[in-house]
Amino acid sequence: MLRSSLEWFLKTEGKLWLKISKVVVVGDLYVGKTSLINRFCKDNFDRDYKATIGVDFEIERFEIIGMPYNLQIWDTAGQEKFKCIASAYYRGAQVIITVFDLADIQTLDHTKQWLEDALRENEPDSSFIFLVGTKKDLVSDAVCERTELDAIRFAKEMQAEYWSVSAKTGENVKEFFFRVAALAFEQSMIKELENIPGHRPQIGAGNLIKLEKNIIEGPKDNTQVSLNCC
Ligand SMILES: Nc1nc2c(ncn2[C@@H]2O[C@H](COP(=O)(O)OP(=O)(O)OP(=O)(O)O)[C@@H](O)[C@H]2O)c(=O)[nH]1
Ligand SMILES: [Mg+2]
Predict the structure, then answer these.
(1) pLDDT of residue 65
(2) In which element (H, E) is residue 175 found?
(3) Does domain 2-204 have CATH number 3.40.50.300?
(4) Where in the cell is it found (predicted)?
(5) Which residue of 143, 159, 222, 224 sits 20 to 30 Å from the alpha carbon of 215, by its own alpha carbon?
(6) Phi, psi of 55 (to 5 degrees)
(7) Ligand 2 center–CA 16 separation, angstroms
């Protein structure tokens, strides 16, 4: 049912469809939010710290199964004095990315509060949640594994999918954002198909994009659709 709806949609409305999904990135100061976004959107890395003031955003263009699709990625400030400005931009987030520093375990403890603040501004169950450990290059494999045990526990409690990345080396960064785009795209498409009279998809079937692994632990190569970053 969903497949025939999708085929019909691609032949008709899909040609004119341009969907933008809002992604909000939150977490303590200095954890590497801006660096993560810059690695993905600009493929660069700056060793010097320049605190984000309030908020900033990037738009990243994708093409998924032949359709243009954009992620609007909001980079928020971790500094307490900017929290008030940043939180004004939490509303309407289809994806919330909660970031901590793998080399600073305290920042993991604060992720629940960041998530709570972001969720307060959004409809219940309307956002995908990710927990991302950054600066993987700074910790040994042993430390990383130990920290990840806690991180995976946190992720389960937060109903989030866990990923570890390094903006410095680029490890997992592209894979992570492709995963974000794939999930947000699929959800947008299902919502769009629901609105087409006589083309009611089976909600929950989720067969637009097939995932190979458990949703809680972030898979490395998990989309079977053609997903291109433009
Ligand atoms: N080694 C290493 N350093 C990183 C990585 N990611 C970020 N950094 C460094 O960590 C510092 C803070 O990074 P930012 O991306 O500015 O942190 P932020 O979370 O955006 O900070 P605020 O804007 O203040 O909230 C910078 O000096 C970065 O160069 C990483 O993956 N590896
Ligand atoms: Mg920043």
Answers:
(1) 83
(2) helix 173-194
(3) yes
(4) Golgi apparatus membrane
(5) 143
(6) -145, 165
(7) 35
Residues 6+ apart with CB under 8 A from 64: 181, 182, 185, 225, 226, 227, 228
- Complex ipTM value: 0.99
Looking at the predicted structure, is the pLDDT value of residue 221 above 50? Answer: no
Percent of the chain with pLDDT over 70: 77
pTM for the predicted model, two decimal places = 0.85
Tokens 């710290």 -> residue: 49
Cβ density class 136-163: b for 16+ within 10 Å, e for less: beebeeeebeebbeebbebbeebebbbb
Q: Specify the residue with its C-alpha closest to ligand 1, atom 32.
A: 135
Q: Which atom of ligand 1 is nearest to the CA of 35?
A: 15
* Alpha-carbon separation of residue 30 from 42, 49, 57, 67, 192 (angstroms): 19, 8, 17, 36, 38
